[in-house]
Write a structure and sequence with these properties.
With 242 residues, this protein is of the alpha/beta class. The protein folds into two domains: 142 residues, HAD superfamily/HAD-like (Rossmann fold), CATH 3.40.50.1000; 80 residues, DNA polymerase, domain 1, CATH 1.10.150. Helix content is 39%, strand content 13%. The chain has a six-stranded parallel sheet, with helices on both faces. Strands 2-3 form a two-stranded antiparallel sheet. Helix 1 crosses helix 2 and helix 2 crosses helix 3.
């Protein structure tokens, strides 16, 4: 482990890695909206978006060791729709739903992402993705025009390890050819991103997004090792390296 205390970054920081879902992009308008749209196209109109969002969140919490495998997604989707439709999605429209999340139109890039990545790259920081995801991530990042902004993209389905395993973080540091302590990871999950990264010897910050990023103004930290938007990140890293 490096000597950085929680909430304080230690120099030199040479690289920055990012989680994807909830950090760089989010389902748009929401998971429930997309589920309802696909269900309607398949003959099940009028499902409540709010109900689907709530049931998806409950199903997600019920799968704490989710490995992002297609069969697991199928079971999670079935749990979300259970009791709402007569035929389980796994026996009807799961494939259509799975493919819908490959569509860049089903996702929104947070408005602070591109300016932050451009600013960090201009300052010489090396950039990477470390994400728990399946085989759809690389094509999706390409369609969203984000893939080429990163030197390395480390995906759990390829690595064989999911966050918070230290192996996926150490793999990213090795690919970037930087010591783990010189890599700071940014993500929205305390367990998977912050604790996982620190367990591998990386530094870490938790992104706790406000409802909307506050323009290009660097917002005040939400906590000792938290930031509210990526607009604050460039100045924070430069200050840490001084």
């Amino acid at each position: 482990m490096n000597g950085a205390k929680p909430g304080k970054l230690s120099p030199p920081i040479r690289a920055v890695s990012f989680d994807v879902g909830g950090t760089l992009i989010e389902p748009w308008p929401s998971v429930g909206d997309i589920y309802a749209q696909v269900a309607a196209e398949q003959g099940w109109p009028g499902l409540s978006v709010e109900t689907l969002n709530r049931r998806f969140a409950a199903a997600w919490k019920a799968h704490p060791n989710f490995q992002h495998q297609r069969a697991q997604w199928s079971a999670l989707v079935d749990a979300t729709f259970r009791g709402l439709i007569a035929t389980a999605p796994s026996r009807s429209f799961f494939s259509a739903l799975y493919e819908r999340f490959e569509d860049p139109g089903s996702w929104r890039i947070y408005e602070d992402v591109v300016p932050a990545l451009e600013g960090l790259k201009a300052r010489g920081f090396r950039l990477a993705v470390i994400s728990n995801w399946d085989e759809r991530l690389r094509p999706l990042l390409g369609r969203l025009r984000l893939e080429n902004r990163f030197e390395q993209i480390v995906v759990s389905c390829e690595s064989g390890h999911c966050k918070p395993s230290p192996f996926i973080f150490k793999d990213a540091a090795a690919r970037l050819d930087v010591p783990p302590a010189a890599l700071v990871h940014i993500g929205d999950s305390r367990e998977h991103d912050v604790e996982g990264a620190r367990g591998a010897g990386l530094q870490a910050l938790q992104l706790v997004r406000a409802r909307e990023p506050r323009g290009r103004v660097a917002s005040a930290p939400a906590g000792r090792d938290q930031i509210e938007s990526l607009f604050a990140l460039e100045d924070m890293l430069l200050t840490s390296n001084d």
